[in-house]
Design brief:
With about 300 residues, this protein is α+β, with helices and mostly antiparallel strands. It has 6 helices and 19 strands. The longest helix has 10 residues. The structure holds magnesium ion.
Length: about 300
């Protein structure tokens, strides 16, 4: 099942995307509830309730897709340095304030978060905040969406708590990430979390072994399998839930593979006019243009 959030006839809706991805059917729920996107549906299922009735299909091309979780219930949990080749790339870039000589591969998952308000849709602009940072980088990531909540979840049971997956671009201001010795600020700027194009349920998508790719202006920059994650999805859930109760709709971005902009010498930062396309097999793609934003 694919669940999308979108605007149709000027009204927020949430609906189910057809198997051929050409049409979508609204769930029969009030606009106020639909404004929460797929979160409303994930929570309904987590309560063990039946899904709302579906209305007549309309062409997918007739709606404006939003992020499937346009208003996440709380910060997005993110994992740093979770692919071997990227961990080495980042440590060697000079931007990793946590890098230790000979200790580039983390021994435990590195977690940080992004504020919910930085989420934008699958075709929305990524804004370069002129005067604040122009060292803006892209990171394609498989994002896990929690279905059934819990605390103290063991790795062996963790997949029972996964509702499904989506794509997240963990956009980053590298200079802020480096200077402030902590990643929250440089990862949470407005527009720094493009998400979409929809949620795909776990029964339709093998998150443990799918290919993730990122293109900038058509140039392939990242291309890796989630089979190369240092810490698996069950391990990430076990670690996160040990002390923090997880709730339906919580989002965990699993880390990005090698090929980010700071891996190049000189770095290839995003600039006005660029287009970032990120795709994950079995989910779809998001494609976000980049523009300068003068906020001062
Ligand atoms: Mg990341």
């Amino acid at each position: 099942m694919k669940i999308a959030a979108y605007i149709r006839d000027g009204v927020p809706r949430v609906g189910q995307v057809s198997a051929d991805m050409k049409s979508v059917q609204d769930f029969d729920i009030p606009a106020l509830v639909a404004g929460r996107g797929a979160l409303a549906i994930v929570e309904t299922q987590a309560r063990g309730e039946n899904l709302p009735k579906l209305l007549a299909p309309v062409a997918l091309s007739s709606v404006k897709l939003k992020a499937p979780m346009p208003q996440p219930r709380r910060n997005i949990f993110c994992v740093g340095k979770n692919y071997f080749a990227h961990a080495r790339e980042f440590a060697g870039s000079g931007f990793d304030s946590s890098a230790k000589a000979g200790g580039d591969i983390p021994e435990v998952p590195i977690y940080f978060t992004k504020v919910p308000e930085c989420v934008v849709g699958p075709t929305d602009f990524i804004e370069i905040p002129l005067g604040v940072s122009e060292a803006i980088d892209y990171e394609v990531e498989l994002a896990v969406v929690i279905g059934k909540g819990g605390k103290g979840i063991k790795a062996a049971d963790a997949m029972q708590h996964v509702w499904g997956y989506t794509i997240i671009n963990d956009v980053t201001a590298r200079d802020w990430q480096q200077r402030h010795l902590q990643w929250h600020l440089g990862k949470s700027f407005d527009s720094f979390c493009p998400m979409g194009p929809w949620l795909v349920s776990a029964d339709e998508c093998d998150g443990a072994n799918i290919q993730v790719r990122c293109y900038v202006n058509g140039e392939l920059r990242q291309d890796a399998s989630t089979a190369d994650l240092i810490f698996s999805i069950p391990k990430l859930i076990e670690t996160l839930s040990a002390g923090i109760t997880l709730y339906p709709g919580d989002i965990i971005a699993t880390g990005t593979p090698v090929g980010v902009g700071i891996g190049f010498k000189p770095p290839k930062y995003l600039k006005h006019g660029d287009v970032v396309r990120q795709e994950i097999d079995g989910i779809g793609f998001i494609e976000n243009p980049v523009r300068n934003s003068s906020i001062r």
